[in-house]
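BACKBONE STRUCTURE TOKENS:
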Amino acid sequence: MRIAFTGAQSTGKTTLLEALKQNKHLRYEYEFIDEITRRMVKKGLQINEQGSETTQLLIINEHIKNLLYPNVIMDRCIIDGVVYTRWLYEKGNIGRWVWEYAHKVFEKYKERYDYVFYLIPEFDIVDDGVRSTDTTFRDEIAELFESYMDICGNLNIITLTGNVDSRLNKLYKTLEIYAD
């Protein structure tokens, strides 16, 4: 089963992934994929508002690669890739061809996820030295996510809200998995 978290920065995706890694029922059955963009930063590439064509292409291709795992839980998915690429294109930061590539990949691969858990911005942005702390940027990204939720077709998208425990409880119930 392919499970992914999606949503703007600082919505709790990584926190949930880390909590799931501790679940003994999941630990041996699933691969866990950490957020791709942090790997880009380690390679010296810019992300967020300063993202480049190279960054976006690498991120999109990593999303494709992550779909090769049969049992995986991912911090982000192709929806994230297309949303951030679209924002960068609309701001004139990247070329149309990169946006078109991202959109085509989104259209081709979006339904390969069994479940996508969508997290909306409910918390203040925490400065971790990597993610953008610009609330206007996050709000614009969140609006783009909302527009993409409407065109995801038959994709099984579940919105998670509330604190970590309530989000985990809904996730476990949806996936019919026991909490530790």
